[in-house]
Amino acid sequence: MAAVALARPEEPDGSFRRYLERLGALRSQPGAERSDGGRRTELHLLFDQLISESCGPAPAAAPSAQDVCALLVQACQLVHLDQEHLVSKLCQLIHHLLNRFQVMVDEQNLNFLLSYCISALKQCHSWTHVEILQALAALVYNNGPKCQKYLPDLLGKTGLLVQFSDSAQPDVELRRAAVRGMANLCLSVPGQPYLDESYRNACFQTFLSVLQSSKTSDVDDITFCMLLQNALKGIQSLLNGGKMKLMQTDQVGSLLAVLKKCMFHGLPGLSIEMPAALYPAPLPQYDKRSPPKHEQSEPAAFKQTGNRRKKSKGKQKKGELAEEGKEGLSDAGNESVLGAEMLKLHLGDVRSSPRAEPGTGAAPGAGRDPLSSRCTAWKRISSSESEYSDAEGGIQSKVRSYQANVRQGALACFLSTIKSIEKRVLYGYWSAFVPDAPGIGSPQSVSLMTIALKDPSPKTRACALQVLSAILEGSKQFLSVAEDASDHKRAFTPFSVTVASSVRELHRCLLLALVAESSSQTLTQIVKCLANLVSNAPYSRLKPGLLTRVWNQIKPYICHKDVNVRVSSLTLLGAIVSVQAPLPEVQLLLQQPSSAGLNNSGSATPHRGSCDSWRKGLPSEGGTPENPAGCTEPCWLLRLCVSIIVLPREDSCSDSDANLTLSSVYEPCPLRLESLQVLALLVKGYFSLAQSYFLELGEVACRCMEEMDPSIQLHGAKLLEELGTGVLQQYKPDSAVSPEQRVPLSRVVTFWTKMLNGPLPGILQNSPHATLQTSACDALSSILPEAFSSLQDDQQILCVTLLLGLNHSENPLVKAAAARALGVYVLFSCLRQDVMFVADTANAILNSLHDKSPNVRAKAAWSLGNLTDTLIINMETMGQRFQEEFSDLLLLKMLRSATEASKDRDKVKSNAVRALGNVLHFLQPYHVANPRFREAIEESLQALISTVQSEATMKVRWNACYALGNVFKNPALPLGEAPWTTQAYSALSSVVKSCKNFKVRIKSAMALSIPSRRECYGSTEQFRHIWAALVVALQKSEDTEDFLEFKYSASLRTQICQALLHLLSLARSTDLPLIWESIARDGDAIKSYVLQYLKSGAEENEAGTHTDSRERERVVKGAIEHLGGIEKQLGGKARGRVSVYLEDVLTNHANATELTEA
C-alpha cells in the first residue's frame, strides 16, 4: 500500500506522458500506412479523453508546464486547419488545459500556438471562431508583453479582435469571446512593457462601446452579463496596469456614464436610462428611471433591508482565485472576484484573521460549465414569494447572480477610475454619485447609497461603500465650502448650501444603512465610510447635531460579535474626537454619562443588552481622579478605551477571531491598538477632559510599554508623548489656560518620575525595534522643562545620558529623534547654563549634522539652531563668564559645520543659516581678531549673503535675512568697513524691493533697520542706495500676484516705515541732500504711508513686539530733533529741510487724531 501511495503523485504526470507518446506515435506514422480517417478518429478520441480528464477531479500532482506546452504544440502540428471539427476540439483542449493547470506558456511555444490560432481565425468557418477565441484568450492571459508582434493582427485597425468585438457583430457569443481575449491582452505584467497608446485607445473604445450597448431581445441575460463583465475587466486592466490617465472631459464623462449604468444593472425595482456621457455639474443630473412599480416608501425599504438573511460561509483557495481570474468566469453564486482593492478591505481590517466573507462559497473548477448554477446570493426571495417553478427559479437565481457580478465589476472599475483621474475633476461629478436631499415632490436621485441600501448582495453593498469611501478620501478641501449654519432665505440656493445638504444626506443614508445591515463585512465598510466622511466634513460650518447622531448610533457596535466591526467603530470614534478638535458638540458628547445613547439605534442594532456590559474602572494606582466640571461620571470614551487596553477580555464577548487569541487574556490586539490610538487622539484634542486622569493614563502607557508586543509598546509610547505635549501646551506663555486649570506641577513631576522609574529607560537602551525607540525618544522630549528641573539629579542625568548615547545609534530614525530631543533639552533653563552639557550636546549635534541621512541632518540642524539660541541667551544673562568658559575650538567647529550645512538641501539649510546668524552674533572681539576665525567668518558671511539672493524656499531666505539681522547686532564685527558689508546691504536691498514673499521682505527690512550707528551703514552712496530701496519697497508694498501675500502688506509697510525713520534718526549732513531729493520726488507717497503708520495704533508687528501710537510719535520726534540739529549746523547750505517735512507729517497726524476724537 505504501508503494502505491508513493507512486500515486506520479500517476497524472505519467498518464500525461502517455498522451504525449500517443501523439508522437501518430505524428511519426507515414501517411500511407494509416488512412487520414483513422488518424482523425484517434485524435478525436485522444482529445475527448484529455478534455474529460481536465474537467474531472483535481489530480494529486499536476503535469509540468513544459509537458502541457509540448502536448499542445504536437497536437497543433497534427491538426490541419481544414479539419475544422478537430480544430474546434483542439482549441477547447487549449482552453481547458491552460486554465485547469494554470500554465504560463513560454515565448517560443506561445509564438507557435498564437500563430496557429490566428491562422485558424482567418481560414476556418465562423462556427469555430468562439472556441478559437477562447483558446486565444487563455494563451494571451498574462502574456501580453510576449505578444507584441501579433498585436497588429489582433488589435490593429482591421485586427481580428477589433472586428469580432465590433458592435455590428450579430453573434453575441463571438463578440463576448473576442472582448474577453482583448481584456486578457490588456492585463499588465510587472516589469514588462505595456501596450502602445494606439492599442490602449482602441481597446478602451471597444470596451466603452460594449458597455454602452443595450441588450436585444434575442440575447439571453447571462451571456449579456458576461459580455459586460469582460468589458469592465478590460477597462479596469487598462486603468490599473497601463496607468492610463483620463484627461479628456468627454472620455471621463462617457466612462462614468456607463459605469453608473452598470452599477445598477439588474438591481431589483430599479431601471435607469443614462445619457451617453455625464458632465461636471453642481446639481444632480437627469437620469430617467422607469421602475416596474412604484418605489416603496422609506420605512418599507428600511424594513426590507433589515431582514437580510445570513449567507453561508466558505473559503476560496488562492489557486482557485487565480483560476477564476484567468477563466474570466462569473462567480455565479457568490459575487465575482474584484481584484486586490475589493478583496482587501484595508482601512484597518484584522490582518491576522482571514475569514470567509458572508455568502462566499468554494470557487468552481475550470472544467465546469461556466454557466453552471451555484447561486446563493439571492436568498432574500423565499420560495413562498417566488412566482416561478423550481427550474424557472434556478434560472432566475442564476441571472440575478450574474447581474450582481456586473454591478460588482462596475464598482471595481469605478474604484480604479477614481485613482486615474484628479480629485478636482472627480468632484465635478460629485452629484452624479453622492446622494443629495430630494427636492419637494421629486424623487431622490440614484447614487452609490442606493446600492448600499437596496442591493440584495452584501458584497455589492460593500463594494459600493468602498467606492464612496474612495471618493470621500481627500475631499476635505472640496467639502470645506459647505455651510448651513445660518438660514439662507434667497431666491437661489448657494453652492455651499448644496454641498452641505449632500453632507447631511450622506450622514442620514449611512446611519440608515448601519442600522439595517446584517453582514459583518458590509457593516465594517459602512463604519469605515462614516469615518472617512467624519474626517473630511467641515462640522464647524454646519448646524450641530450630525456628530451626535453618529456618536449615539455607533456606541453599541463597540460590543459587536465581529472584531473588525469593533475596530472600525473605534476608528470612527477616533475620527470624531480628532476632527477640527476641539468642537463644542464633541466636548458635550464626551461629558455625557456612559449610558447615554446606548439604545437609540433601534432594535435591529446588535449590541450587548445592558449597560453592565460596558467595562468599568480605570487603573487606580494614581489615586482618585478629579472629575471635570459638569461631569457626574468619568468620560465614557476614555473609560472604554482604558478598559479594552488593560482589562482581561470578557468570556461573554466572543468574536469571529476568538480562535486566534485564546492564548491571550486581553482583547484582540487590533482592538487594543485602535483603543490606544483613540486614547491618544482624545488626549491630543480634548486634554482638558483627559487631564483629570493624567496619572492613570500614564499608568496605562507604562503597562503598554511593559508588554512584549512591540506594536502595543509603540502606541503606549505615543500616548505618553501626547500626554507630555498636552502639559507643554498648557504651560506655554501664550496659553489660554489659566494657571489654576493646568495640571499641577507636582503631579507632572510625579508623572515623569513614574515614567523614568518604569519601562521607558529600558526601551531606550535595549529595544531591538527602531520605531519604538524613536517614539520613546519623542516621548522623552515632551517633558515639561519646569518638571525636569524638579526631578532628582540621577533622573536628569539618566535622561541626558540616554539621549547622548542614542545620538550615536546606527539607525537613522533613532539618531534623528535623539538629535531633535537634545535640541529640546538644550533650551531647558537648568541645563543651558551648564557649559559642559552645552559642549557635549554641541559635539553630539555636530556629529549628526554630518550624517548621510537627510532626515538626521535636518533634525540636527534644527537642534543646532536651538543650541545657538542658547548661546545668545547665556551671553545676555550670564555675560562674559559663559563666553570665556565656552571652547573657542568648539565655536569654530560650529561655525564651519553650519557654513557647510547651509549648502545642503533646504530642510537643513533653513536652520543652518539661523545657527550661522547666532554664532556670528555670539563672537567676541578676540574671536574676530583671531586668524583661525577670520577665514571661517568670511565664508559664513558669504554663505548667508548668497542664501538671501538664492532661489531657495521662502523659509530659507526668511531665516537668512533674520540671520543677517543678528550679524548686524554684533559690535565686534567691522560692519560698514569690511567688503562683505556692501554685499550684505545690496542683497537685502534687492530682496526688500522684489521678493514675491512678503514675509521675506519684512525680515529684510527689519535687518536693514538693526545697525545702531551711522558708521555701520558705510559710505554716503551706500546709505543712499539703502534709503532708495526702502522707498521703492514702500511704494510696492501692495503689489503682489499672490492674493495670500496681501494680508502681510500692512506689516510690511509698518516695518519699512520703521526702517526709514531709523535711517533718518542716524543720517549725517552728507546724507541729507540725497534724502531731500527723494522726498521732493516721492514725498506725497511717503507722507501718506507714514501717516497710515502713525494712525495704525497698537498692533503686533512681524517681530512679535507691540508699538503703540505714542511710541511711534516719539520715534518721529526723535528723527525731527536729530535732523533739526544737523540742518541748524548747515545753516543756509541745506537745499531743503527734511525736519520741516517730518513736522508737517506729525502735524497732519495730530489734526486727524483730534478730528477723530471729536
Walk me through what this model shows.
- The chain has 1158 residues and is an all-alpha fold.
- The protein has a domain at 1056-1155.
- It has 54 helices and four strands.
- The strands form two sheets. A two-stranded antiparallel ribbon has the order 1-2.
- A hairpin with a 5-residue loop joins strand 3 (1099-1100) and strand 4 (1106-1107).
- Helix 38 (812-825) runs parallel beside helix 41 (854-878).
- The longest helix is centred in the middle third of the chain and has 31 residues, at 390-420.
Assign an overall shape. elongated
Helix content: 55-70%
The strand order across the widest sheet is 1-2
Give the N-to-C terminal Cα separation. Answer: 117 Å
Label the structural class: mainly alpha
Overall strand count = 4
Biggest sheet architecture: 2 strands, antiparallel
- Mean pLDDT score: 81
Low-confidence stretches: 1-12, 291-389, 597-624, 627-632, 652-663, 1098-1106
Continuous helix count:
54
Cα gyration radius (Å): 39 Å
Query: Per DSSP, what share of the residues sits in E-state strands of 2 or more residues?
Result: under 5%
Biased composition (Basic residues): 306-316
Domain DUF4042: 406-586
Pfam family, one: HEAT_2
Region (Disordered): 283-333, 349-373, 597-628
